[in-house]
Amino acid sequence: MGLLTASLLSVVFATPRSRLLTLDLGGRPLPYRAGQAVAIGPGGSPQRRPYSIASAPSIAARTGHIELLVGADAGIDLSWAVPGASVDVEGPIGSFTFDPSSLADRKSTRL
């Protein structure tokens, strides 16, 4: 688990109470498994909040970007989340992950 600084590429208003943040990892690898999260915050700030990674690991490896679906509820300050902003990223964190090989073990059944 490490700390890296990324650039915020875009902020999309996904719903009235959520934002889709796209972070450019600047060519640095961030190997993670589906279901893991990262803790993010404004660049240089010790304050970070955990958010689940919304993009597939294979897409992140190919593009060098990760997407986070962030709640914009009352009390959460996202004023720093503007395109071009520097974002500190810590992680990946979490062990509740998806193992794609588990799908191969399942047998198809009809109801």
Description of the molecule:
Helices cover 11% and strands 41% of the residues. It is mostly beta strands. A hairpin with a 6-residue loop joins strand 3 (37-42) and strand 4.
How many distinct beta strands?
Answer: 6
SSE series? EEEEHEEH
β-strand percent reads 35-45%
Gyration radius from CA atoms, angstroms:
16 Å
Q: Segments where pLDDT lies below 50 for 5+ residues?
A: none
Task: Please tell me the overall pLDDT.
Answer: 88
User: Which percent bin holds the helix content?
Assistant: 10-25%
- Helices, by number, come to 2
Oligomer: single chain
**Gap between N and C termini:** 43 Å
Topology, element by element:
Elements lengths: L1 E14 L2 E7 L12 E6 L6 E4 L4 H7 L1 E7 L14 E8 L7 H5 L6
Antiparallel strand pairs: 1-2, 1-6, 2-5, 3-4, 3-6
Précis, in short:
By secondary structure, this protein is mostly beta strands.
Keywords:
111 residues, mainly beta, 2 helices, 11% helix, 41% strand, globular
